[in-house]
C-alpha cells in the first residue's frame, strides 16, 4: 500500500517524520523499545519536566530548533500519523497517535526518551528489514518535522510503499 493511501484512509493531509536515535546511537535498541511499548519519544538534557511547565525556562538554553521540535511533538493530536526513520536512510515504522496529550517520565529517560506519545503501529519493520528511503531525503537532520502537501518531501514519501 502506498503511504499516501494510508494517509487518505486516515483522513490526513499532513503527517510527521521523526528520527529515532541519540545522535545516531542505539537505534536498534530504541526501535525495539518503541515497538514493544507502543510509543515514540523526544529528549533533550535541558528539558527535564513537562514541556508546558519548562518551555519558557528552557527556550534560552536549547535554541530555536529544539523549541520548534518540542512544540511540534507536544502539539500533535490524537490520530496524527508519524513516520519513524532510522537516520536518513530507512523507515522503521508508521504510527498513529492514540492520545492528544504527551507525557514526561524522568525515569523512562534511562532507557528511552523521557517525553513520549502513545501510538498504535500501522506498519512496523524488523530493524534488519527496514524500508529504504529515497536519496532525496538526505538533509533531514532535525529530530522531528511536519510534512504538508507543499513540502518537497510530500510526494516522495506519499509515493512510498509501506
Task: Report on this structure.
By secondary structure, this protein is an alpha+beta fold. It has one domain: ph1033 like fold, CATH 3.10.590. The protein has helices at residues 3-10, 27-37, 51-75, 152-158; strands spanning 15-19, 39-42, 81-86, 90-97, 103-104, 115-124, 131-132, 144-147. Strands 1, 2, 3, 4, 5, 6, 7 and 8 form an eight-stranded mixed β-sheet that branches.
What is the helix fraction of residues, given as a range?
Answer: 25-40%
Domain module tally: 1
User: What is the CA-atom radius of gyration, in angstroms?
Assistant: 15 Å
From the helix content, strand content and strand pairing, which structural class follows? alpha+beta
The tally of beta strands, per DSSP, is 8
CATH class: Alpha Beta
By CATH, the topology is ph1033 like fold
Q: What does the largest sheet look like?
A: 8 strands, mixed
Low-confidence stretches: none
CATH architecture annotation? Roll
Could you give the distance between the termini? 6 Å
Order of helices and strands: HEHEHEEEEEEH
Shape: globular
Mean pLDDT: 90
Present the secondary structure layout.
Blueprint: H1 3-10, E1 15-19, H2 27-37, E2 39-42, H3 51-75, E3 81-86, E4 90-97, E5 103-104, E6 115-124, E7 131-132, E8 144-147, H4 152-158
Parallel strand pairs: 1-3
Antiparallel strand pairs: 1-8, 2-6, 3-4, 4-6, 4-7, 5-6
Amino acid at each position: 500500500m502506498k503511504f499516501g493511501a494510508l494517509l487518505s484512509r486516515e483522513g490526513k493531509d499532513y503527517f510527521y517524520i521523526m528520527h529515532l536515535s541519540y545522535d545516531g546511537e542505539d537505534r536498534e535498541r530504541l526501535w525495539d523499545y518503541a515497538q514493544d511499548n507502543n510509543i515514540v519519544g523526544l529528549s533533550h538534557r535541558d528539558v527535564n519536566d513537562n514541556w508546558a511547565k519548562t518551555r519558557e525556562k528552557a527556550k534560552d538554553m536549547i535554541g530555536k530548533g529544539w523549541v520548534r521540535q518540542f512544540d511540534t511533538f507536544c502539539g500533535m493530536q490524537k490520530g496524527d500519523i508519524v513516520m519513524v526513520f532510522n537516520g536518513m536512510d530507512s523507515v522503521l515504522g508508521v504510527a498513529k497517535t492514540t492520545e492528544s496529550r504527551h507525557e514526561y517520565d524522568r525515569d523512562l529517560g534511562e532507557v528511552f526518551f523521557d517525553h513520549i506519545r502513545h501510538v498504535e503501529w500501522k506498519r512496523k519493520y524488523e530493524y534488519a528489514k527496514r524500508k529504504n528511503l529515497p536519496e532525496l531525503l538526505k538533509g533531514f537532520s532535525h529530530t522531528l518535522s511536519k510534512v504538508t502537501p507543499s513540502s518537497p518531501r510530500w510526494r516522495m514519501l506519499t509515493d512510498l510503499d509501506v
